[in-house]
Design goal:
Elements: H1 4-22, E1 27-29, E2 32-38, H2 40-57, E3 65-69, H3 74-83, E4 89-99, E5 106-111, E6 121-129, H4 133-142, E7 149-157, E8 170-174, E9 180-181, E10 197-201, E11 209-212, H5 219-230, E12 233-236, H6 237-246, H7 250-260, H8 267-280, E13 287-290, H9 296-308, E14 315-320, H10 323-337, H11 345-359, H12 362-367, E15 372-376, H13 381-392
Parallel strand pairs: 3-4, 3-6, 6-7, 7-8, 11-13, 11-14, 12-13, 14-15
Antiparallel strand pairs: 1-2, 2-10, 4-5, 9-10
Helix pairs in contact: 2-3, 5-13, 6-7, 6-8, 7-8, 8-9, 10-11
């Protein structure tokens, strides 16, 4: 019997997967990487505009036949006809070729159109037009169908490589001649299901890790070993805050203002501090993010920032330690650390409560991306380092 906990966990996993679909992170399909290019909301706005323009140009009362050229256009056609405010008919066809009566003939035909199109307004819905070769074939096939009118609508158009004289009546967005996937477009049959558009990019060159764990888990200690072993840059949120405040940077002054007023520093300020640290180290092999992200919105912002640079988080490495052991560790550390929140068990438990209610939720976020790696954080420092390094070799 499925427990209530399991049901809740499945529910939250579905929510996180939806968040991941909405965000724009680096995408790997087969052997290639693709970076975010066009958000799904931008695509929706383009589709809505195209449908409105087509509707406005049609004679009142006319019922057009929209034809999608498979395979890539199925999402575009579905969204387009939903935005089209009026009666219409919809059909899908495939452009196919077969051998003719001699070995030199190559006859083209449209599979899927059998009805009489005499006197009809036919509007072709294409996902993307580049050289125009397919478009030319479609015009040739339709020229003897006695249509009233034939129009072309394309979501994306590559003007730099278009080689035909045929008119394209409606263009959603002009794009450069670079390979894209998503929203019906694929790379070797993968990528059609993504709601956004991604553009081909170079493979990531960095190894970026989120080091994760509750207070006292030993993140700082392990980060020092890992940065030396793998030549990575260690970015600690605490260190970054202290540097910016001490040096009275614009972000540091802004953060101090919130802190002095007893308010939480907004995610935007924290994220901008971390971005600045990354930009300082453009030649790095990668980064260890320690103490960041702390919230889901920070995680999404980090993913989006790295994706814009053609990079990604390779994995979250989480040190997992029972709470009673952590309390003992922190109380012992408090004898020498001088930190007031390390010598008071009530304050320690409050820190754990904040961790579990706000930060531990990131486990589901990264698990939904198959990037969560739980590490047993109990044992000697060298044993824990060895466990982490074994994960590193798989990333």
């Amino acid at each position: 019997m499925i427990s209530e906990y399991q049901n809740k966990r499945r529910f939250f996993h579905s929510i996180y997967r939806e968040y991941i679909c909405k965000q724009m992170s680096l995408l790997k399909l087969h052997d290639l990487y693709f970076k975010p290019y066009l958000h799904k909301d931008e695509i929706s706005a383009i589709v809505k505009r195209l449908a409105t323009e087509v509707k406005a140009d049609l004679p009142k009362g006319e019922t057009p036949l929209f034809i999608g050229i498979l395979n890539g256009c199925f999402l575009f056609v579905a969204d387009f006809v939903r935005e089209f405010k009026g009666n219409c008919e919809t059909s899908f066809v495939k452009l196919a070729s077969y051998n003719g009566t001699s070995s030199t003939e190559n006859v083209k035909q449209l599979l899927g159109i059998n009805e009489d199109l005499t006197g009809r307004t036919v509007i072709i819905l294409e996902d993307i037009i580049d050289t125009g070769n397919t478009l030319q074939e479609i015009y040739t096939i339709f020229k003897n169908r006695n249509l009233k009118e034939l129009k072309i609508v394309t979501l994306f158009f590559k003007p730099d490589v278009y080689r035909k004289e045929l008119p394209i009546n409606y263009i959603g967005k002009n794009i450069e001649d670079k390979f894209i996937v998503g929203y019906g477009l694929d790379y070797n049959n993968l990528g059609r299901n993504y709601p956004a558009i991604y553009q081909l990019t170079t493979p990531p060159k960095m190894k970026n890790i989120v080091l994760f764990g509750p207070p006292g888990a030993g993140k700082g200690t392990q980060a020092e070993f890992l940065k030396e072993m793998y030549h990575l840059v260690h970015i600690s949120t605490g260190d970054v805050f202290r540097f910016n405040i001490k040096n009275q940077t614009e972000l540091g002054l802004l953060a101090k203002k919130y802190m002095d007023e007893g308010d939480l520093v907004p995610d935007e300020v924290t994220v901008n501090m971390l971005k600045a640290e990354v930009e300082k180290n453009t030649g790095a092999n990668g980064f260890i993010f320690d103490g960041f992200p702390r919230t889901q919105s920070q995680a999404i912002a980090l993913d989006e920032f790295l994706a814009e640079k053609g990079e990604q988080i390779n994995g979250m490495i989480a040190l997992e330690v029972p709470e009673d052991i952590l309390i003992t560790r922190l109380l012992e550390r408090g004898k020498t650390s001088g930190r007031a929140d390390d010598i008071n068990e009530i304050k320690i438990r409050n820190r754990f409560n904040e961790y579990h209610t706000k930060t531990a939720i990131l486990k589901d976020y990264f698990e939904a991306q198959d990037k969560y790696y739980g590490i047993n954080g109990v044992g000697s420092i060298s044993d824990i380092t060895k466990r982490i390094s074994e994960v590193f070799t798989t990333l």
